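Take a look at this chain, tokens included, and explain the fold to me:
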Amino acid sequence: MTENRDFYNNYYLNDNLSSWRRVGARAKVSNIKSLLGDLSSIKILEVGCGEGAVLQTISENYADCELFGCDISSSAINSLKSRKIPGLKDAFVYEHGIKFSDGYFDFVIMTHVLEHIKDHDAILKEVKRVGKYFVFEVPLEDNVNGRNLRKAPGNYAERIGHVVFFNRNSFKALIQRAGFVILKEKIMTPPYYVASFNLKGISKLKQLITVLVKRILLPLGFDKRFTYNYALYCAKDGPDHASEKSSLFEH
């Protein structure tokens, strides 16, 4: 997980992106709540927490949570600590592991992190060790639109640090190989308020139409054509969780 540390140290020095990350955090927390239900009175670790937009959003909705964050970026952790988020117990730079005992956290969340990492084995092993239940979310970018964007001038994915591109099958395979049981899954269109952030006029209207069309087409398997977000709610592998499995397909 420590690859490209310099890139992410510089990334979180750009305050112009903070507002966008706060908007995106609303959607991420909404997805987490739809999968987990009530988040009250639990210990939550966010791995790849950045400057803490998701943790802050959880804190605003669940004041009695104990929150923890880790990231490879020291500038992100410094920014997170400066926010003085109620319920934040610890925030630390990830070096070679997570400094807590086995099963310490009720939930561990990784939202839009795994697409930034080429070597997943070590971090997923650590995440599984310290947690009881887990939410992983990624963008599904192994599709026609994603490939076209990566060929375009300015390479969007490279600019924001995406180095692995998933489809539903490849992401589920990764999580299952790491020893997790998938209890629920959710595929969804990025919400309009995120997709249209910083757009104006006709561009904003075009984005509204795009979001509506993607929602209509999603049940027809158009994640092979367009990029959607995909979340998995998981437990550790084992017979105790076999009866918990279910499927959640939403847009």
Remarks:
- The beta strands are 43-47, 66-71, 88-93, 105-111, 131-140, 180-188, 228-236.
- The chain is about 40% helix and 20% strand.
- The first helix runs from residue 5 to 11.
